[in-house]
Design brief:
- By secondary structure, this protein is of the alpha+beta class.
- It has one domain.
- It is about 20% helix and about 50% strand.
- The protein is built from 1 helix and 6 strands; from the N terminus they run E-E-E-E-E-E-H.
- A 6-stranded antiparallel beta sheet has the order 1-2-3-4-5-6, covered by helices on one side.
- A hairpin with a 2-residue loop joins strand 2 and strand 3.
- The longest helix is centred in the C-terminal third of the chain and has 14 residues.
Length: about 70
Amino acid sequence: MPYIEQVVLPSGRFTISLDGNAYRLSYRDLVVYENGRRIVRGRASAYAFRSVEQMRYDFERDVEAL
């Protein structure tokens, strides 16, 4: 069963979706981490998943950089 959580902030919507080995973290579609890909402001690059903690740190750093 998938896990989906959405948080609505004054600055935009933050979404987490986990389903087995598939994952997606997104912030206003400006920063998206999804199944080995990282998209920031429309620019895609590969993302090597190491741990949940590291992914969260990387994601938060990209959101703050906006």
